[in-house]
Amino acid sequence: MRHWKICAAGSIALLASACSHPPLPAATAGVHSPMAMVVAIRAAGATDKSVVQVAPLRDPAVDGYLDQAHADENAGRYRDALDRIDVALKLSPGAPDILQFRAEVEVLLSEFPAADADARRSFALGPKVGGLCASNWQTVLEIAESHADEVGMAHARAQRDACHKAGPVRM
Fold it and tell me: Which of 37, 66, 100, 124 is the most exposed place for a label (fewest CB within 10 A)?
């Protein structure tokens, strides 16, 4: 009989504790991790098959800093990557592809206002077509989505889509 009372008391306590916990929060739709955001940004640039693509020529020292920044990023040392990107920008100020790379690392650091500003500056200085353009506006789109900014999302989508320039139709 005593064993039954202990089991009954334990069951009641278990049921009471189960009821006392608040429900789990609902999953938030559209929220991306910074890593997922960067994957989407880079995919937008890589998948753009515009007829026009622009690739910069630059000092090999700048490429050295960028290679080190990529290695730091791959190792998860985002702050170190950002420092190396800043050095590269001092050697090649206003390089739109480097500004976009910095925006991507800033997204990884969840520094969204800085990332948005760098992506927009990259667009202003860079080509208005092709993969870099698409990456610029995908950055703005990802940040707008993270803030549930419907107007910003619509504008960034339209701008990103305008980056694509198809070649002539050949018959």
Answer: 124
